[in-house]
Amino acid sequence: MTKTAFLTLLSYWRRSPGQFVTLVLGLMLATALWSGVQALNAQARQSYAQASEIMAQTILTRLVEPSGRDISIADFAALRRAGFLVSPVIDREEDGLRILGVDPLTAPPGAIPAGIVSGGSDFTLMTGEQPIVFLRAGTQPPDWADEAQVLTSDALPPDTILADIATIVRLTGINTLDYFLLHPEQPAGLPAIETATELLTQSPDEQTDLGDLTGSFHLNLTAFGLLSFGVGLFITYGAVGLAFENRRPVFRTLRAVGLPLRRLIALLALELGSLALVAGLLGVALGYVIAASLLPGVSATLRGLYGAPVPGELAFDPLWALAALAVSFLGAGLAGAQSLLRVAQMPLLAPAQPRAWAVIDARAQRRRLGLALAAIGFGALATWLGEGLIWGFAGLAGLLGGAALGLPSFLAAALNAVSGRAKVPFTEWMIADARQQVPGLSFALMALMLALSANIGVSTMVGSFRATFIEWIDQRLFAEIYVRADDQAEADRIEAIIAPQVDAVLRSAWVERAVLGQPAEFQGISDHPTQPVEWPLLSGEPEAWAHVGAGEALVISEQLAHRTGLGIGDTVPFAPNQALPVAGIYADYGNPKGQITLNYALLINAYPETPQSRLSLRVASEDVEATIQTLRDQGLRQDQIIDQTSLQAVSLRIFEQTFLVTGALNILTLSVAALALLTSFLTLGGMRLPQIAPVWALGQTRRRLALTELWRAVGLAVLTFIYALPVGLALAWILLAVINVEAFGWRLPMVLFPFDWARLLVLSLIAAALAALWPTLKLARIAPARLLQVFAYER
Amino acid sequence: MTQTPLLEFRNVRKSYQSGGDPVDVLRDVSFVLAPGETLAMTGESGSGKSTLLHLAGCLDVADQGEILLSGQAYGPLDDTARARLRRTRIGLIFQQFNLIPSLSVRQNLAFQARLAENEDNEWTAKLAERLGLAAHLDRFPENLSGGQQQRVAIGRALALRPEVILADEPTGNLDEENAAIVLDLLLELVRDTRSGLLFVTHSTALASRLDRRLHLRRGSLLAEAA
Amino acid sequence: MNVKAFSFGLMLAADVATGQSFAGLGAEADGFAIPQPNPTFEFPEDHGAHNAYRIEWWYLTATLTGEDGQDYGVQWTLFRSAQRPEAAEGWQTAQIHMGHAGLTTADQHFSAERFARAGTGQAGVATAPFEAWIDDWIMQSTAPETEDALSALQLTARGADFSYDLDLQATGPLVFQGEDGYSVKSESGQASYYYSQPFYTVSGALSLPSGDVGVAGQAWLDREWSSQPLAENQIGWDWFSLSFEDGARMMGFGLRDSDGGHFTSATWIEADGTSTPYPNGALRLTPLSQADVAGRTVPVGWRVELPERGLDVETTALNPQSWMSTSFPYWEGPIRFDGSHQGRGYLEMTGY
Predict the structure, then answer these.
(1) Among A405, B66, B189, C8, which one is least packed by beta carbons within 10 Å?
(2) A617: Cβ–Cβ under 8 A, 6 or more apart, which residues?
(3) Among A263-267, A294-298, A478-482, C243-247, which is the least confidently predicted range?
């Protein structure tokens, strides 16, 4: 009996392939997009973890040279002979390759990835005659590694080459150290290391964590994944609901012939489970394909934007696949729970007529509207009162869920408002009919709405970030040319030569020191009487820059203010026994460290050992090229000269790359929503014949009726877009002003991009029209006999 | 009397594919309907009554023969012309009422007339009055009884002042009492407007109330009953 | 003398081999020098490093008594292992140092280990004045220039939870092991250069988690270098240094081979430094009691017999758990002995 009953239930799908496709498609896409994004994030995170594990960045404290001077072998010997367990590291970037030289004899446990050395006295890295270098398969070894034996290791992130420090020194000629790793267990009875060295200790949490740095990017992806899941879920919910309602007579008959209710529920759950399995497997495959095809772009972005090494090839993780399947089951469960409950509560002798699933009565609509308002209220409250990232996301969920539920009410109201103005009876009918159609399309339209608002929200966030960042770069780059001399002597020589050619030569210097327990950069900038350095402050006293120029005050970055609680007027110690009041706070996006900007002379006086090798040149824009040529003629290398224009160009290019992935995901979610619309139209097409046939009989051509369908779809898309716009902007606001602040400590101003909206509107109209095209053509060519069937009481 | 017939069927034949062999639904059917005349078409289920009505309503196309409305042949008309003809000259009344659920009673009544750009508010209001719908004009079809809905359908057909009214078992879904009331109204209005009425029914009792009666059996017009 | 030192050398060679560079272990083939019989030593030069040889060590053990009346033992070792018979400044050096420090009490044993490249300044051995060091572990001469550099030393080392600082004064001359400092290690002829300073009196301080304690006692320094690993079938080593109440000393070792055989060697040292070598078989070593140490069974009590000198004693470890949990773990700790003679000494056991 069970088998027969099950087959009976399944037979429905054979007769309704459109609904089957919708259901599987919805679930598959929910699974694919969500898990695809997860795969991207996981791959990136794994790479970050590898990158930081390499030097046990998350565990080990480092000793760094605050003013960027070289660390020598003598510094190493001195620290070791003083009893401190330090291990030297060469860690620098050359042509996009991270070069790591390590000392296996002194490296603390875990510093060198397992698989390269196993710890203890495993000195595999060290060499006899032929040097050995390690890199990840796929990373191109540099020319200088030609004479080395190249071994591959999966424990290394991409674009990283690791070797014994002696090998690096020998092959590259680098002969200075970059930092020391401090062994976590220092011997008994030693003084504090600060008393023994000029070097600065940098605890793991003060070190740049790629995870933090790239957090904004991944947040962006995650938001997309979440929204895509929502889009898929609405599609699935609609399809499941329809399938259940349409089969009410079947359920009644099955129960009437003796199938116990519990068995029926179990069979329906089994059916749903099977569908979830099929859709899940397809989703895993699709998710993998999506992730794999997006990964090169993501990896290029992360590399370009943050220098974070992520391989361009996706590894397949069975655990990930299982999680994705679970997502599919979760989705099916969420979408099917209500329908199963209804079946469970259905009395045996219930009217067998399928209630038009689509048509919900006014009371239900009011209830749904109430629910929508409650969800939005909750979202607003969570955003407003809640603290922490989780509340930000809760706010997001409330807003979007509520907005989706409220969409049908909005559409009904909007159509009512429009129909009052319609004078032509056909238009009147068309609008009235659209209103009739809304409930049936509501889930597809909700999906479209979510896709549109995700699109608007995330694009606004990314675009705002881009606009702000570029404007900020513009403001911060006060000089036309920046020169980084190798040492002070070279800087002096260059200044003497170049000074007559340019408007001004300004000096700047860099020192790293902790301020109130927070790692900070001190930036010394010198002023020029005719061209005071000035960039906009987030907040500050009037004349703040004049005070900085006069050495009477300093300005600090937003991050430092956020972390230390320092405000305008507070005094900041910038050197032993020297302090200045804060005159202003400025934005410093993307910098994980706090920053203090003060008068150059003050900084140099306080830290006389600071290398004074940085020059900023003020030049008339037409003289930039000639000046650069002069500098090159003086023997400066390309990497020592940076001009404002190319720096800006690089920033822009990086951001365009970020857009690539965002854009691809935008198109994907939108396509999904369009597909949902298409299948909804197809399903409704058959159900709507009784509404269309009389109008045809009363004297309309099929062509005109079909065109009407098309216009209606486009009209609904326009209304949905109008509704999605504020929702998307609210989403962007939450991302920018709530989630960003919680996650990274800085708030980005929201910038609006009406041109993007217009493009999106056109895109959604095209999507809706495409979705309606097939059903339209079908209707235009329908045999009159099919329409006549509507009137035929004999059949 | 050499008056142009309102509706004329000349040797009309219609067949459908059924399992490969064409099956004749109507065979060599000829008859005329004069202006102001009411004609009942009776027959068993499957005798071809509905097909005949659909052909008369320009909803379907005959395989052979000719159908003419006030002398105009349907044959040469294209889709657009056929739609215009239906819209402007024919009133259709179905067993299932087939009102537009999204439109109010008032809108439904005026719907076809407005489509035909032939709306006469006064006439529509009068119709509503006579059909006993004046109190229900702003309600929607789903809130009406079956009898009321069919009265709306009749009103919709008549609001247009069509040349011919085609009714397909309009009382089939109604109880006896309502059926009688609806039929009375229909006949009264047809006579008042001097339209013709082709009334398809399987009920000889109803048929006997009309001027003339034709009987279909397996697609052929048998005899003209008195 | 110490098998672990050999192991250290072996292991480095093996690492290098897996790192695909040179090398079989055929000592002669690598260009390393080989110890030859009838050596002559030049001091202070020979107190320093011999980079032409593959392995070398400066190895000191001390049996001490604290102000608190407790027995203590201290070990300080600097190993040198060469990847190639050459030295260079900076990172490129082929000379690698390993340091081991141990401190034993009756119920605790502390150990520490360090690695370093010679040439970076992190570790090395200087001869004028003499200093052997790795990090802040130092063995440096405090002797007047007219005296042998090793006749007076200062010795320090530091681990995660202990440190010590000792002064050593030699009361006798250097002693040359084997045949005038040429010490044979197996029947197939593996040998090393080997001399000792067994006559130190010690004073100083230990620093323990429980506090500082002043100590005094005796110490023994071994200097040994070679290029040859052990014979292939030799799996471990039991080494004894014994100090007798009359001022005499004895050094003895047994190399265990995989068939259960023992290659033994001993040197009897009179209080005035006169030494007598004893060939294989003269010394008899018999395990008497076992202890579970770090998951292994280790013979911590021995019967030591040298019939030609009327020696027949049983040894007892101060702390049977004197386990050096270094990269190459081994047992090393102070002992007392009783029987035909009484006294204190040091025992080292490897390969268990």
Answers:
(1) B66
(2) A479, A480, A481, A482, A483, A498, A502, A504, A505, A506, A627
(3) A294-298
B98 Rama class: left (phi>0) / alpha (psi -120 to 50) / beta: left
For the stretch A572-575, contacts whose Cβ atoms lie closer than 8 Å and that sit 24 or more positions apart, written own/partner, are: A572/A515, A572/A516, A572/A596, A573/A515, A574/A513, A574/A515, A574/A522, A574/A598, A574/A602, A574/A603, A574/A606, A575/A513, A575/A606, A575/A607
pLDDT-based confidence at residue A531 (cuts at 50, 70, 90): low
Per DSSP, the three-state class of A87 is strand
Distance from CA of B191 to the nearest CA of A (A): 22
Cβ–Cβ below 8 Å for C160 and A185: yes
Please, what is the average pLDDT of chain A?
A: 80
Contact C71, C211 (CB under 8 A): no
Which residues does B contribute to its contact with A (CB < 8 Å)?
A: 16, 45-46, 50, 54, 57, 59-61, 79-80, 83-88, 90, 92, 94-96, 98-103, 107, 110-112, 114-116, 156, 168-169, 172
Q: Are A433 and A696 within 8 A, CB to CB?
A: no
- Which position has the higher pLDDT, A130 or A715? A715
- The secondary structure of residue A429, as a DSSP letter, is H
Taking alpha carbons only, the member of C335, C327, C272 closest to residue C114 is C327
Contacting subunits of A (3+ beta carbon pairs below 8 A): B, C
Amino acid A685: pLDDT:
72
pTM of the model: 0.61
Looking at residue C26, its pLDDT comes to: 33
Dihedral sign (CA A92, A94, A96, A98): negative
Q: C169 pLDDT band (50/70/90 cuts)?
A: very high
Phi, psi of B217 (to 5 degrees): -135, 125
Q: Which helix (H) or strand (E) holds A413?
A: helix A389-419
- The per-residue pLDDT for range A76-112, each reduced to its tens digit, is 999 999 999 999 999 887 777 888 898 988 988 878 8
pLDDT score of A361: 58
The SS3 of residue A296 is helix
Q: With pLDDT > 90 as the criterion, what percentage of chain C qualifies?
A: 67
> Nearest Cα to C273, choosing from C151, C171, C148, C181?
C171
Q: Which of A156, A102, A100 is nearest to A125 (CA)?
A: A102
- Asked casually if ipTM beats, i.e. exceeds, 0.85, the reply is yes
Residues 6+ apart with CB under 8 A from A684: A358, A437, A440, A441, A775
Residue A174 has pLDDT above 90, yes or no: no
Asked if the bond preceding A573 is cis, omega within 30° of 0, the reply is no
